[in-house]
Structures are given as structure tokens and as C-alpha cells.
Amino acid sequence: MQKPVKTLIVVVGPTAIGKTDLAIQLAKYYGTEIISADSRQFFRETEIGTAKPTQSELQEAKHHFINSHSITTEFSVGDFEKEALEIINKLFTGNDYAILVGGSGLYINAVCQGFDNIPKAGEGIRQKLNDVFAEEGLSVLQDALQKADPVYYSQVDLNNPQRLIRALEVFETTGQPFSSYRIQNITARPFNIIKVGLNTSREELYNRINHRVDLMMNRGLLKEVEGLLPYRHVNALNTVGYSELFEYLEGNVSLKEAVEKIKQNTRRFAKRQLTWFNRQDDIEWFEPGDTAGIIAYLNQQSLQYPGLSV
Predict the structure, then answer these.
(1) Cβ-contact 114, 185 below 8 angstroms
(2) pTM score
(3) Is the dihedral of CA 77, 110, 97, 286 positive or negative?
(4) Please, which pLDDT band fits residue 155 given cuts at 50, 70 and 90?
(5) Is the distance from CB of 119 to CB of 180 less than 8 angstroms?
(6) What is the rounded average pLDDT of the residues 208-225?
(7) pLDDT band at 134 (very low <50, low <70, confident <90, very high)
């Protein structure tokens, strides 16, 4: 009898679309575990603003990389690739399937096809860019990246200065856009990869996003951000949901304006996520809630489970 091919099921899509719920249902159906590729959910200190799975959801299926690191710890895409592959290979010793889920396209790609060796920055370049950010703000980095690397500009989280600085330092060191180093080499994996994506109408997606932000505020996001104020300039906190409330706490905007800005920036982030994933032709798209249709599709892709039913 032919040995089954080990298969990684990848669940992608924009924020607030329902990826966590689908991943849990698939993990339970296929009797396996989940590797989170949402880079914002790695950090223990950011609970509410990153929309992590709840404790009850974590109990339904084992998750890896949820609360796995501190915001003060450096954890690169390359680090994630290495550790995630170790976990996947370990899972495959006792199971034919594993679930990878997230909206961070760079981290998804790192696991599925490898992450190119990005050149190290020239001496002093990162510090210079950090100084620019501290003195002139995020918009200067955004403008510089748009000119230097419009491809990566259209894909990256523009509210994350760490990502912008990394791309700009590579450009200033080599004269080549950061994106050119990320697409050259694809590493073949010794397992099958099947990708499914969740998406819906723009209006419904934006309603989901706005509702989620309101729920976060009701759950105590402001209090969470207040407790993180001493870490204001840690890279992991330079992200949507935190940056806006830091601005409020520093007296630069009203609370109402900050909350509206979170919703607006999250909607923009979702658009960039979809731009990233829509460039890939190996994703089969479904509406949220169509678990039966997704499992039927997966089973058609040679994931046959005698005796299991939806």
C-alpha cells in the first residue's frame, strides 16, 4: 500500500474574515494541530489588539506560536521558518496533516517556499533610518519605500516601521529593491501544500472589521495599551490597534478619532493582505462559513478520510 503524502493545509485571507474558526474546524476534522502564521499573535503582551484565539478556542485545537515570544524579543521571518518547519516535521511523524493559518503573507511564504537570504545592512544604515523614523515620523519612511520599491510598498503593512526600515536598509545597501530578493528562489518542500482562502464582499468584510474593533475596545484594549506605554517604541507595538491608541494617550488625538483610525488602518491592511494573496494562483477561495465546501475541496485534492464526515 502506498504511503500517504504528508500534507500541509494552508488557510489564508484578510483580517477578521474567520480564519481562526475555520482552522480549528479543520484541525478537529483531520485530527491535527495548528501553526499560527499571524506575526502579531506571537507576542504574549498583546492579547486583545491582535485578536488572538480565545482560551476556549485554544482548548479546541492545539496552536503553535500563540504567545510564544515577548515583544522585547527579536523574532525574524527566518526564525519563524526554521521553527515552524521543525514543528511541522514533528507533527508529520504521527499525522499525515498539519494546518498553517494566518494573514501574514511573508510568513506563509517562508514556510511554503522558503525565505531568500536577504543581504545584511551596511554599517550605520539601520541606525540612520531609525533616527529618521524617530525625528520625522512614519510617513517619511512610507514615501521613501514607495519610490524605492513600489512592489513591496503595495504588499507590506505600511504602519509597521520595522518592516519599512528593513526594506529600505536593503535598498540603501545594495541598490536593489527588497522585493527582488524575496522572489528569486523557491525551496521545494518534502510535503504536499494545499491553500484555501477566505474572502467575502468588501462591504461585509469592512463591517466585520469595524465590529471587531468595537469588541476590542469593549474588552479593554485601551487598558491593555496603557499598560504597554513604557514599551511604546518596541517594534512589535508599532502596529495597527496600538499605534493609534498611543497617539491618544500622548494627547495627539481624541479617543473617538483614535478608534476610527484603527478601523480605517485595519481596512487598509486588509486590502493589502488581499493584494498579496490575489497575486498567487494556487489559492482556492471560499466564503466564510463554507466549511463543508472547503472540506469537500480538500478531499478532492486527495485528502481522503474513510469514515469521516463533515
Answers:
(1) yes
(2) 0.81
(3) positive
(4) confident
(5) no
(6) 98
(7) confident
Q: What is the pLDDT of residue 302?
A: 64
Task: Please name which of 112, 90, 306 lies closest in space to residue 192, comparing C-alpha atoms.
Answer: 112
| DSSP codes joined into one string, 14-70 | -TTSSHHHHHHHHHHHHT--EEE--GGGGBTT--TTTTPPPHHHHHHS-EESSS-B-
Rounded distance, CA 274 to CA 22, Å?
A: 18
The type of residue at 161 is P
pLDDT digits (tens, 9 = 90+) for 49-64: 999 999 999 999 999 9
Domains identified in the chain and CATH numbers: 7-116+185-300 (3.40.50.300), 125-182 (1.10.20.140)
Residue given cell 545584511 in the structure block: 120
- How many degrees, rounded to 5, is the angle at CA 241 between CA 102 and CA 87? 25
Q: State how far the Cα of 223 lies from the Cα of 216, in Å rounded to an integer.
A: 11
What is the per-residue pLDDT for 3? 52
